[in-house]
Amino acid sequence: MAPLHTLQVEVNGQDQVLSVQPRQHLVDFLRNELGLKGSHLGCEHGVCGACTVEVDGRIVRGCLTLAIQTQGCKVRTIEGLSNDGDVRDLQESFIRNNALQCGFCTPGMVMAAKELLERKPDATREEVREWMSGNYCRCTGYHAIVDAICETLAERAAKSQKVKA
Amino acid sequence: MSTIRWNSENETMTPGPAHAGPEVEERPKVDPADQPLHNVTEDPRYIGKSVERPSARKLVQGQGTYIDDIELPRMAHVVFWRSPVAHCRIIGIDAGAARRMPGVILVADGHDLAKVCKPWVAVLGHLAGMKSAPQYPLAVDRACWQGEPVVALVAESREQAEDALQVLQVDIEELEPVVDMETALDSSTPVIHPELGDNLCFTRSLNVGEVDGAFARADAVAETTFEFGRHTGVTLEPRCQIADWNPADEKLTVYHSFQAPHMMQDLYARQFDLPESSIRVICKEVGGSFGIKVHAYPDDFATVALSIICKRPVKFVADRIESFISDIHARHHRVKARIAVSKSGEILAFDMDDLTGIGPYSMFPRTSAIEGNQVVNLVGGPYKHKNYRAHLKVVFQNKTPTCQYRGVGHPIACAVTEGLVDQAARAIGMDPLEIRKKNVIPDDAYPATGASGIKLEVLSHEACLRKIEKMMDYPKLQAEIEALRKQGIYRGIGFATLIELTNPSAAFYGVGGARIASQDGCTIRLDPSGAISVSVSVGEQGQGNDGIYRQIAADAVGVDLEKVRLVLSDTDVTPYGGGTWASRGAGVGGEAVLLAGQALRANILKVAAVILKRDATELTIRRGRVVDAKTLEPALDFAELGRVAYFRSDTLPNDFIPELMVTRHYAQRDFPFIFTNGVQASYVEVDPDTGFVKLLKHWAVEDCGRVINPKLVDEQIRGAIVQGIGGALLEECLYDDRGLMINASMADYLVPMSGEMPDIEVGHVQTPTRSSQLGAKGAGEAGTAGAPAAVMNAINDALSALDAQCWSQPLSPQKILAALGKV
To answer: Are B386 and B498 part of one and the same domain?
Structure first.
């Protein structure tokens, strides 16, 4: 067994100092050491996107990132996002549009959509479909997820128009 | 009879319209199929509306509880050493080094677990002649597919168990595998289970009417061999469970990601020789199921056995690789089929021969012969022809066992039927929509019996075809295709008319001896606060059963939606029932909720009558209060009624006991199944240079009877369609000639992504079943039934302009290019 490393990381606004195995993945660290069960393990090889979390403002695969790679970083998970209310409009839109069924992929979907909302505020429906292709959903058929994100894009655009005006 | 109409939207009482509207204006003609349905409750507020479902809010915040989120004290973790080859003898297991690894608690093999768990043989009595071999939690002496669990390794943590697995030594002798289903019955092919005599699991023949005569007098005959790739469900949450045997009170609790908890309770009792009452199965959030999580897997029994042996909770969570080789597969069929048609477009006969390979064992307890059996029952299902011949062979092979996956046989039957109908139409130069209109069993001809003998209660093919034609603007699309073909752009339209069996009676499993309930139950309790607590034997896996049960209960009792609390999926708590499979949650479970709600409502009125000293017939219920039946004047709040009934029974007459908790059950017994119907259309573009298919648009018109929540139904249908498209275009478990799956990872096995899926427009026709008050039929699988046929037909419509055809699913770019003669 490799020696433990001391990991210092800010998770959802809280400083954490823990001893971790160098081989431990970020999502296992979040789930097992911190009890943040909202990030899910769907494939453990970087394809399905259910473990998507944010590290220093960019989304990553929690199953392809080692916990020690986040040394000194700011990590955010679905729990943090939900508590802070940053994506409340998006989450409401998911609920309104029935953009989730079993909910297993949903935290990852919300994380990925959040980055889209921030980085591509004028994304087209086609671009939303393309962007979200890194996150598998086996239940919905994607249509409602795309609807939910497009609706949030439009709402935010309308809001920023108003602010400008 | 009061003439006052209660307006449910704004809570006001309105008399009839104040004045008649302008009568000169002609009203647009309403299709009879679009007429609004009768109400099933007195004050309908939620049934039929797209209201939020209760679990959505927590799931969108990542606050659901899936099995892997649960941690119990002293919980151990199991991993399995699975056969790395398709067929082998187990020579020896050297677990010495593994046992010395940190954290290892137990290493067990098939012989160890056979001491606590009996073997099983998965056959059904009503599938005559069906056979299978005894199967154990872990392979005993011989493993019969790549992925069969052979050794279990239990450790304090998952990591420790996986580390120890690396040093476990298992010596095997590879045996000749039976890989190809086409040669499985050849005399030169080894027999997988010698005691069975051959590799034939089940066979069935059907010969109805005069098939040979029909083909002889046909103006055109189309014949094709259809191929369907073996694929699997890929639930995003893998199969998982925690078995917790408490040796002190001899009670087994299994936290399960599962669709039918009572079925598992029964199976654990029988396989482990335990009283049923000592077993509790609890399902929390289930991260996708689709039929994958309705079967009893060897590693499931192994996990329970290990908990009993270790006397502590044991968690099993499949990783993705082992999901691919141990979750059930489905749909591997080769169907040679033909259709006879007259010049005028009348379908005269279908004739088909289906071969399917199911792995080395029939899957427990639903068996692996059902899928093929369904294909026989369903080919030609929407149409009125009277001549039908079918032959089915279900064979064993050394690949992962197959069993019921969403749609169960329907996608194959529908693709065969609809593919042949399109070929017949092309042969006689008839429009594909036209030939369907001409041949579907007319909407006024029900109840009817299909050529295969299936009983059809009431369907609406004609109305659905009318509706989809309008939705997609068929003539405009045809013109567009025509114009684009001149520019070398190849687009096509494909239709698929379908039937789907839902709301099954005991004819599905019960009559065959499988202890799988066809009935479901609901208990509703009025709480002292005036809220209601609703407990149902059917669970929730994302389809929104929790949502519709809340809606039905709220309407049936007469309370606000927010006043309904749901309790699902716990065998210690809920009524007994079948759970979720064969699209029965709404039709069977929903009816039980309605009946329980009505019964509680009647009991509430009895209590109110006693408290108010009035006649119960003078009272009714509106939104959590008892009101005067005529004036709707409030008379008694539920909270006040609850207070008196529960805390001041001293004020009630001595001979009166309030019964504010009721249970009702429902089983559909009028027909073997309640069939639904629908039609789908797909619009695609095929690139003849690359073989790539772009899905431009998809339409579905579905008749699932009464729609309880349109938004839930629409996304059920869309999700099912996308799963169907997956099988038609992308998904296939690929095997090499030694029986090894070569694409068992999420990166190599292609699952549909949002970028390549089309927008899907959904329309409804509502023809309620008369077998229940609610009138709901199932909605979860029809999308998967029809999508592969629609997409396949659309591609072939496009390819027809290039004189090419492709009937092998998945219709990959390679196969399309091969059909075009380019590779």
So the answer is: yes
B649 touches chain A (CB under 8 A): no
The rounded distance, in Å, linking the Cα atoms of B183 and B30 is 56
Same domain, A110 and A150: yes
Q: What is the ipTM of this complex?
A: 0.98
Q: Which of A88, A139, A151, A152 is the best residue to mutate to test the B interface, defined by the most B CB atoms within 10 Å of its own CB?
A: A139
Structure tokens at B216: 């002889």
- Record the tokens describing residue A130, joined without a space: 């393309």
CB contact under 8 A, A37 and B755: no
SS3 letters across B649-716: HHHCCCCCCCCCEEEEEECCCCCCCEEEEEEEEEEEEECCCCCCEEEEEEEEEEECECCCCHHHHHHH
Q: Number of folded domains in chain A? A: 2
* Candidate from B712, B718, B755 with C-beta closest to A143: B718
pLDDT at B27: 58
- B74: distance to nearest CA of chain A, Å? 15
Give pLDDT, residue B15: 38
Q: What residues of chain A lie within 8 A of the CB of B759, using their CB?
A: 143, 146
Segments forming the whole domain that contains residue A95: 87-164
Beta bridge partners of B392: B204, B354
Averaged pLDDT for residues B119-127: 96
Residues of A (101-160) whose Cβ lies below 8 Å from B: 101-107, 110, 128-130, 132-146
Whole-structure pTM over 0.80, yes or no?
yes
Query: What is the end-to-end Cα distance of chain B in Å, rounded?
Result: 76
Q: Is B248 on the interface with A (CB under 8 A)?
A: no
Which of residues B665, B683, B703 is at a domain's end? B665
The partner residue sitting opposite A100, judged by closest CB among B60, B753, B755, is: B60
**Domain housing B788:** 201-232+328-506+670-819
Mean pLDDT for B802-812 is 98
Residues B176/B179/B182/B186 CA torsion (nearest 10 deg): 10
Chain B 295-324, residues with CB within 8 Å of chain A CB atoms = 319-320
Flag if B715 and A141 touch (Cβ within 8 Å). Answer: yes
Q: Are strands B808-809 and B220-228 parallel, antiparallel or unpaired?
A: parallel
